[in-house]
Amino acid sequence: MYTLITAANSAGAYSLKNKLGNSDVLLGDFLDLPEIMIRSGKMLKLPDPQDPSYPHQMLALCLDRNIGKIYVLRKAEAEQLLNAKTLFSEFGIGILAADDPL
Question: Which of 5, 24, 85, 92 has its Cβ near the most Cβ atoms within 10 Å?
């Protein structure tokens, strides 16, 4: 299972990735990312958290990409995903805020 860290274009995402020290970590963002990084599979283009179906789009992405844990670093994403935490937990996917313990 993979761990997804959102806000891939932020220093906080890279800092958290280094703390996790795990090769099974994916970075993703809904903001613009370098196309070459997306094509290489090193980063994921995430849905926009302003979309009303955002939690369901993220759940589908997690199931498709074998993601078992999401560290949410942006407030807009956290508001949506933490409200859907029960839904994600039914599929064995953990939602963690940026300040949750590793």
Answer: 5
User: Cβ–Cβ contacts within 10 Å for residue 13, how many?
Assistant: 22
Contact call for residues 5 and 26 (beta carbons, < 8 A): yes
Full pLDDT tens readout for the chain, 102 residues: 999 999 998 999 999 999 988 779 999 999 887 787 777 777 899 999 999 999 999 999 999 999 999 999 999 999 999 999 999 999 999 999 877 765
Q: What pTM, to 2 d.p., does this model score?
A: 0.90
Q: Are 19 and 45 in contact (CB under 8 A)?
A: no
Whole-Å CA distances, 12 to 8, 23, 38, 63: 8, 17, 19, 25
